Amino acid sequence: MDMYVCDDFTKYGLSSFDLATQTSVILSAQSSADFSVSPMPVFNLVVLVSDVPDFAMSATCDGGTATVTGTPGGPFSFNPLPTDGAVIDLSTGAVTGGTPGATYTIEYTTPGVCPQTSQAIVTVLDSEDSDFTMAPTCDGGTATITG
């Protein structure tokens, strides 16, 4: 009999379990009265390595880009969903259509048998004002940046 436990990556490879909470059962069509179950069952404890959900967000003019530094290949999502026109690419984590100055919480979930989830916050860069005025001169003009 094998018992599978996902490793807790936040505890540096140490994972605990309570053997008392495990249930011994006989998996067959025969009655359990025909068998005796030892109070000290023999089993293999298989500790599966948990995925690492680390990622970072970099702000852009209309959203942000994600860089996965942990286990790659999982989906991204907003949490909570934005109420403006921002959208997220589920496979890359790229946010577009965001409002300048708005803050979004992005969630990443790893794809493995021991998935993990983490969150990062990105604040869309404020839009820059590119306004200017032109004043004519005898030899052309003078531009004054007002933005």
Walk me through what this model shows:
There is one protein chain. The protein is an all-beta fold and 147 residues long. It has strands at residues 2-6, 44-48, 55-59, 64-68, 76-78, 87-88, 95-96, 103-109, 117-123, 132-137, 140-145. A 3-stranded antiparallel sheet has the order 5-8-9, with no helix packed on it. The chain has a two-stranded parallel ribbon with strand order 1-2. Strand 10 (132-137) and strand 11 (140-145) form a beta hairpin. The mean pLDDT is 84.
Q: Could you give the topology of this structure?
A:
Blueprint: E1 2-6, E2 44-48, E3 55-59, E4 64-68, E5 76-78, E6 87-88, E7 95-96, E8 103-109, E9 117-123, E10 132-137, E11 140-145
Parallel strand pairs: 1-2
Antiparallel strand pairs: 3-4, 5-8, 6-7, 8-9, 10-11
Kindly list the characteristics that best describe this protein.
147 residues; two-stranded parallel sheet; 36% strand; rod-shaped
